[in-house]
Amino acid sequence: MAEMTPQMLGYAAGFLTTVAFVPQVLQVYRSRSARDVSLGMFVLFSTGVVLWLVYGVWIESPPVIWANAVTLVLALAVLGAKWRWPG
Amino acid sequence: MAEMTPQMLGYAAGFLTTVAFVPQVLQVYRSRSARDVSLGMFVLFSTGVVLWLVYGVWIESPPVIWANAVTLVLALAVLGAKWRWPG
Question: How many domains does one find in chain A?
């Protein structure tokens, strides 16, 4: 078995913190309710992810770019649900 | 004015994606309801943040360590609210 490297650990971490948003997106669209989801959280988070994306492009890091591009789409989907079903 | 560096941008990004969880924590504890918050999201996210934390310690990056230590506390607070008030 290959030895674990910090880079592998970083990829696993980035994978988890990105796919984490999938069940949240599914939940708000299935229930058509986003009352308990914080608007402030998703506005701040999406803004931060845009900055991470610019950072990734600047330092030319494909994993940072990809993880944040996917996270941005998912976070904006939650924000859209909050806008439609604020509760 | 000092020129913007990628590192400054990274700090700004990390600050936003960390403090983003503060309004979410306040909202679920004030309303005592976390029905629309996805359990799966916060379990996966917290696990990923633990891995980011280990990654930060491994590569000896204080900003990665601090940002993820704070995020972990906030994400676990949301998870605690979900456990108490699942809705």
Answer: 1
A67 found inside a domain: yes
- Residue pLDDT tens, chain A, 87 long: 678 899 899 999 999 999 999 999 999 999 999 999 999 999 999 999 999 999 999 999 888 899 999 999 999 999 999 999 998
Q: Which secondary-structure segment (H or E) carries A70?
A: helix A62-84
What range defines the domain where residue B50 resides? 37-87
Complex ipTM, two decimals? 0.92
Q: How far B23 CA sits from the closest chain A CA (Å)?
A: 6
Is A16 contained in some domain?
no
Chosen from A44, A53, A59 to mutate, greatest number of chain B CBs within 10 A? A44
Q: Are B28 and B37 in contact (CB under 8 A)?
A: yes
Nearest to A20 among B15, B35, B48 (CB): B48
